[in-house]
Write a structure and sequence with these properties.
It is a single chain. This protein is of the alpha/beta class. The chain has a single domain (35-198, 233-283), classed as Glycerol-3-phosphate (1)-acyltransferase. 40% of the residues lie in helices and 12% in strands. The protein is built from 9 helices and 9 strands. The protein has helices at 10-29, 41-59, 88-100, 119-127, 135-143, 155-158, 175-183, 206-212, 258-283; strands at residues 63-65, 76-80, 107-111, 131-132, 147-150, 187-193, 203-204, 218-219, 239-242. Helix 2 crosses helix 3 (88-100), helix 5 (135-143) runs parallel beside helix 7 and helix 7 packs across helix 9.
Length: 289
Amino acid sequence: MAEPGGFALPEEWDRRVAGALAFVRRRISGEYEVDDFGFDRELTEAVLMPLLRPLYEKYFRVEVSGLHHLPDEGAALVVANHAGTIPLDALLTQLAIHDHHPRQRHLRLLAADLVFKLPVTAHLARKAGHTLACNEDVDRLLGSGELVGVWPEGFKGIGKRFTQRYRLQRFGRGGFVAAALRHGAPIVPSAIVGAEEIYPLIADLPPLAKMLGLPYVPITPTFPWLGPLGMIPLPSKWMIEFGPPVPTDGYADHIDDPMVVFELTNQVRETIQHMLYRLLVRRGGAFSG
C-alpha cells in the first residue's frame, strides 16, 4: 500500500527490500530455473520488464486492445508488423501481453541470427525467452503450448525508409503459417502503430553496413548528427491491437500445400495492413495522439 502522494509506506519498503534480498540470494546460490531455451522467468519479470515499463507507460504511452483474442492457454502464433530501426516494437508487445493479459502470458519472440551473434544481446535475449527464428525452435515452442511472436518483415521492416512507413513489406515465404498449420495453432494478426516515428530512417550507408556485418547503418534526423543524444527515440504515441485469430486446425490435410500457405500468409498480411490503417486514424497525431 502507498500513501496518497505515491510514496511507499515503511512496511511496503520492508517487503520490497526483503524481496530484493531474496532475489539476490537465489541468483547467487543458483536456486532459479531456466527452460531448454534459456528462458529465465524470474529475471525477466523482476529485472528486464521493469526496465522497459517506464518507456511503455510514460514515454510512448502505449494503448493496447484486443487482448481477448489471445488464448488463455495453449499454443498460438502472434504475427505483427515490424518497424523502428531497432526492434523495440517486439519487446513492448511482449510487455503488453504480460502486463495486461488476464493470464500474464509470456510471448516467446522469434529473433534473427544477428541477435544471437552479439555477446550481451544474445545472453539477454535468451534470458528473456527469445529464440532463433527457425523451424526446429518454432515447432518445439508451439508443441509445448507456448504463445509465440513473429515479425515476418524482419530487417526489411525495421530498416525501411520513413517514406514507406506503415506499408507492410514482404512476409517472406510464409514459414510462420506452415508452422501454425503443423500444430493447428491459431494465428493472431497484430498491428503496432508508433514504432515508425521513433527513429525516422531517411538514409542508409550500405558500404559501411557491409563492412560491419549489419543489415543497415541508419541515418535519421538526429543520428549521427547529435552523437549519443541522437540515439534517444522520439516520444511517439503507440497503439497495439490484437485482431481476431485466424484458425488453422481445419487444414490438417493441406499442411504441405504451398497454395494454402500462400493464401493464409496473404490473408494475415492484408488483415494487419487494414488494422494499421484503422489504428492510424484512431491515433491522430504521431506525437500528440
